[in-house]
Amino acid sequence: MAIKKSDLYSSLWASCDALRGGMDASQYKDYVLFMLFIKYVSDKYANSDDFAPAVVIPQGASFKDMIELKGKSDIGDKINTQIIQPLIDANSKLARSDFPDFNDPNKLGEGKEMVERLGNLIAIFQKPELDFSQNRADHDDILGDAYEFLMRHFAQDSGKSKGQFYTPSEVSRILAKALGVGPDNTTAKTTAYEEFDIKPYEADMRHLINTYIQADSAHVLGDLETLSLTDLIIKTGIHDAIAQKLNAKGKMSRDSIAEGIINNVRKTIIRDRLTDPRFYDEMSKLLDDLIKQKRDDTEAYEEFLRNAEVLVKKLANGQSDAGVPHALQGNREATVLYNNLISILQADVDELQVAEPRPEYGDERAQMALRLDIAIKAQAPAGWRGDQVKESVVLNTIHRTLGKGREATLAVFDIVKNQAGY
Fold it and tell me: Is residue 21 domain-shared with residue 170, that is, in the same domain?
């Protein structure tokens, strides 16, 4: 008969509680939550073939390798140097301060006492029922329930105020993100998307969330004051835009007006290029042509202004659907992928294996754009931009769907990251 989760967590707590002896709960919980952390990331990522695993587990630094240390006289030192330190070295966001000292005799005892205590602690997390390998990276109900259960009991047994009771920073960050808890959340969600109340340990979670998980503020690109000229050109036409904005006092020369228009167009191209690199590269070439155009007499100057207005409107309209397969029309994100995949796929081709270039790719490119679009929209977590763990989900989705190398994967990711629809 399968063990009930409530029985599993009760057994987990009872075993941990029995092992801590006289150690304060606020200290012992660091060791227990590290064990939960290393077991979780090992189950999820130790043998991962993902393009960008959320946590890199170096060879010899997994929970399975910790099991091999049981009974060794230097187990505490080995956990510090062969498990924790390689994890820190392989993951830039982890720091030594995130983890407790497993070779501290004042907390864990000396000699045989330390060996037995750490061996028994490892054995608790060897329970076959405590298996995260088949659970989703986000909203794991086993992880969430176990974390909630342990945090609640540690908080109840702690002599400190709940505001002082929190886990090491990056361990907290990864566990809380796996729980689906963010800066504005008061509940976490299970795999079945049923919400469970985190109020029993809300003070603890609020502390770690507010301290360590920061929502990225909106990053405003460009200056509306300097870009408003292009908006006015679209709205009123280029002559009225010059009169209202660029040369309101009527004292600028033709060359100064032309340079003002060129600079505003250039800023727009630079600002928006990553949203559709191929389109804006084409616009950049048109701008180069515009810059070279003569404007030394009235007729040439008027021709320059007409061409500048056409270019600004092309920028505003974006890539047209002309030449885009019918299945992609009306789908902005898929169309951008389609237009840019041609250069990405060409760059990824091994020249030694392909006798002739394949400039168009035809239906293969359209089908790939659709597959990528569907996969990303289905699997990208909410609020993934700027979140390393969630961005890794998107990277892995692109890599699996695209089936190409690192450079191609990163090139598509850069485009995807700049599409508002993802």
Answer: yes
